[in-house]
Amino acid sequence: MTKTWLITGANRGFGRVFAKSALERGDRVALTSRKLEALDDLVATYGEQVLALKLDVTDRGACFATVSEAAEKLGRIDVVVNNAGYGLFGMVEELSEQQMRDQMEVNFFGLFHMTQAVMPVLRAQKAGHIVQISTVGGVVTFPGLGGYHASKWAVEGLSDTLAQEAAPFGIKVTLVEPGPYMTDWAGSSATHAIPIGAYDPQRQAMKERQSQMPPAMYGEPDATGPAILKLVDSENPPLRLFLGALPTMMVPGIYQARLDTWEEWKDVSVAATKVSHG
To answer: C-alpha distances in angstroms, 249 versus 128, 192, 239, 252, 253?
Structure first.
């Protein structure tokens, strides 16, 4: 049974991989990009299966209009993939206010606009699956990515809550959390803050750690296609799904360290429950 998709940021990266995977199996897909010409090859290859729409997700009105057009022309929307986003690199002290605001506008508010726009459609259908593209950096952090982490942790909190609110309407929500992949995320699509020299030793240490990571830990984007199809075809999809090997190895230890710390400080936490009158 074919599905109808709406994917933001479908011109490259995961959005493009997911779009091709859906199209190759015969699904219909509404693709959005800030530059329509970036979708021309998909339109030429898949014809009437594709609805190409120009969209800047920071434009709230355009998000609602795009969802309305997609639902009208395609008849329904089964899967929404909020993929549009980019990376912001810089230590917290180095980030400009405008860089931080721009990051939140795209990575968080763009997803927020699209989620609000599509919810009435999915509620009317009493079905649908919202797939929010987060990152392993939505549950753990690394130096030099504070702004990016802030945007994705906001996405995580919003979407975790949304999953509870949407469930009674038959709507599923999944946060997809990829590890490192060979995409353009850290390339031309990224923004970099002006560096402060005091942080150079940390940057150098990070580069050395990255250079020691085996190449096999970097995933191939095309390998995520079958995973996303299995996810959206599941009757009971998870709230969170890692993509790639690295998150499965890294995150459990980090979570265990958090649990250990909470346990170590449990007496202090419990003592803060009420004032002692003894």
So the answer is: 31, 28, 19, 7, 8
* pLDDT for residue 218 is more than 70: yes
Annotated active-site residue 134? The verdict is yes
**Tokens coding 173:** 């929500």
Per the domain annotation, does 260 fall within a domain?
no
Q: Which of 21, 134, 151, 159 is catalytic?
A: 134
- Confirm whether 271 is domain-assigned: no
Q: Which of 148, 151, 159, 172 is catalytic?
A: 148
Residue 30: what pLDDT? 98
Record the pTM.
Answer: 0.95
Could you confirm whether 159 is annotated as catalytic? Answer: no
**Number of domains, the chain:** 1
Active site residue 274: no
Is 100 inside any structural domain?
yes
